[in-house]
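Proteins fold reproducibly. Consider a sample protein:
=====
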Amino acid sequence: MRLKTQLLIASFMVALVSPLSVFAQPVAKGVWLGNEVGAAKTPPMGWNSWNAFRTEVDEAKVMGAAQALVDEGLAKKGYTYVNLDDGWWQKRRLTDGRMIIRTRIFPSAATPDGTTSFRGFTDRLHSMGLKAGLYTDVGHNACSQAFDLHSPNLPEGTAEERQVGLDGHVSQDINLYFKEWGFDYLKVDACGLADFAPDSKLVKDNGYIGLTPEIDRASLNRTDSDRVEKRYAAVAAALKETNPDNDYVFSICNWGMANVREWGKDVGSSWRTSSDITPNWSSMLHNYDSAVKRALYAGPGHWNDPDILFIGAGDFDADHLTEARTHFTLWAMMNAPLLISYDLRKAPQSLLDIWGNTDLIAVNQDPAGNQAVVAYDSDDAQILVKTMADGHKVVALFNRTASPAKVNLLASHLKLKGDAPIQLTDLWSKAGSTFTGETEFELAPHETRVFSVQGARELTDGVYLSEIPGAINVADDGVREPQLDPTVHRMIDPWAGTRSGGSWPQYAGWGGAQADMTPYAQALQIADHTYDSGIGVLGNSLLQVKNEGYAIFRATVGVDDSTSNRDRAVTFAVYADGKLVAKTPPLKFGDAAQDISADIAGHKIIELLATDDSAAKEQPVVVTWGGARLQK
């Protein structure tokens, strides 16, 4: 696995660098490598035009949504970004490469010399206390030019004039969008890298200039992930250079493709983990599954993005409030960006109440940035637990099915003591209740119950690492070759139906680092001893942990019983600010787990290495940091 982080982004300031060997053993760095560039210290909140209007967007619709955010009090609750998606452009001017705005639908963009400018548009949004977002593509052409061919707002002109994407114009466009036009947020799609093959019917019929696909939607192996990453890293570098005040958001939208699970956190403020959401339950499950078990890859400044909210349509409209509340609750628990996409000029109060739930907004916007961890997992029901900055917990009980489901909530799910009272406050009804040890709920079809939790902590003098994923940077997860994740719900393709041979796994992520489970979704277990808390990861991995005043690191470590490679020995080591402070002898499959502890008082960055000498073509070793914790 290559060590990426900001080094790749910085390289575009001067020159490209060659990636490190994909099988090199990681080494402690002594410096924090996690990406915190940009303004997304908490998940972005606001409004996006796409689900509401697609390319049939115009200035009146966008400003109407902006005014509604202010008038309905949503802006004061954090919904500040107003993001204009596909459909705004007219063409790229060939004389100087400048983008020209379609003034027929954005009349305020008209200028006497015909250059057009969004400055008046963004100034108006800023005067309302809002921020402005814009859409583009990382390739030559945009998604509407492939999938909205009947739209009246497609780019016009020659093939060259219709190349409105960033390719070949990264610095020019970023400077235009941010310095001259005053935008604050950029969503960068990737259809230009996937859908305009030179010999395709689309290109021939529409007179486009083809581009050999760098993303193969049907094949991870045929996708040039390195090239895609470099393109987005170049955009990140341009954004950083253009915005020295660091006040911007960079949204990567390549739908979970090109192994973005591994590098998105090092490049963007957020990255899409799946295909576009549609307003049906199965699609919501699909997008949710693509992000819910990636908690260790998200945190302040970088967020998993399962796509914009589709509350207000289809299975999540005002006649399906149970489903709409579930959709919102799950996105809040996952620290997903909260982007409304509905015509807010006519929103019913029932939907405004969902978007405006201040308790769940606070869950989403908690400064610790800990994405909820799956405490119980099944195809029928799940329990998600999130640790807040002040130490208290929030728990969501999610019924994935169309039938009622009984769910038992245990103190152990919450990492709280089973012999002390636990107080629950429902974050929808605000009703309170108390239990000790265990309590039972019957969930209605598609219902999610979510509670704020107060109780006595199981670990009285510290915190388990699996409780604080927002403080962890997976610098290297040991994954050698990206693998498609078989646990993501496979919906009927909303665009192709059942015309294809089946709905196959599409998104890499299988084998990534996990909280409280192994990389392959098994219980953490060493030499027949199971650990309820811990970190599961592969050999040749490096995890970084921010230490906020703790004095001791402790864990019980070894090769996990689930590993398929049972021949290689793994050495576990702990570094504090780059200094080795603890190390085990080599441990093999079947060896008894070994306790490891380290004095970390006064140190800010703790690094956990698990290294082995396995050959490049061998299966990686599965290792467990059982009960990994920071203590006073």
